[in-house]
Amino acid sequence: MRQAKLTNAERAIERALLQSEYVDVSKSDFEAIAQAIARRRKDAVISIRVNAQDLRQIKGKAKRLGVRYQTLISEVLHRVAA
Q1: Is a pLDDT exceeding 80 seen at residue 2?
Q2: Is residue 68 within 8 Å of 62, Cβ to Cβ?
Q3: pTM exceeds cut of 0.90
Q4: How many whole angstroms separate alpha carbon 79 and alpha carbon 9?
């Protein structure tokens, strides 16, 4: 039988499972987690014009935070909308 090639992230999950690092959660906790994930799902696309200097600063800040600049912009929009 062929062995599936796993990504680094998948190997980390497999190791954690084998070492019992994951624990069972109640059905209500699971539903709460699933709902939180669903609320964060990105399902709309927008196109906006921004000041070039602002965009450079956002890209710099995103790089310092270790995230993509689109992710940072999305997170800022999410916080403002909430």
Answers
A1: no
A2: yes
A3: no
A4: 28
Supply φ then ψ for residue 77, to 5 degrees: -60, -40
Residue 52's alpha-carbon distances to 9, 55, 78, in angstroms, are: 35, 5, 22
The C-alpha atoms of residue 82 and residue 78 are separated, in whole angstroms, by 6
Cα–Cα distance between 46 and 49 in angstroms, integer? 10
Percentage, residues of the chain above pLDDT 90: 43
Contacts of 10 (CB under 8 A, 6+ apart): none
What ranges in the chain are assigned the alpha helix state H? 8-18, 27-40, 52-65, 69-81
Angle at 82 between CA 34 and CA 32, to 5 degrees: 15
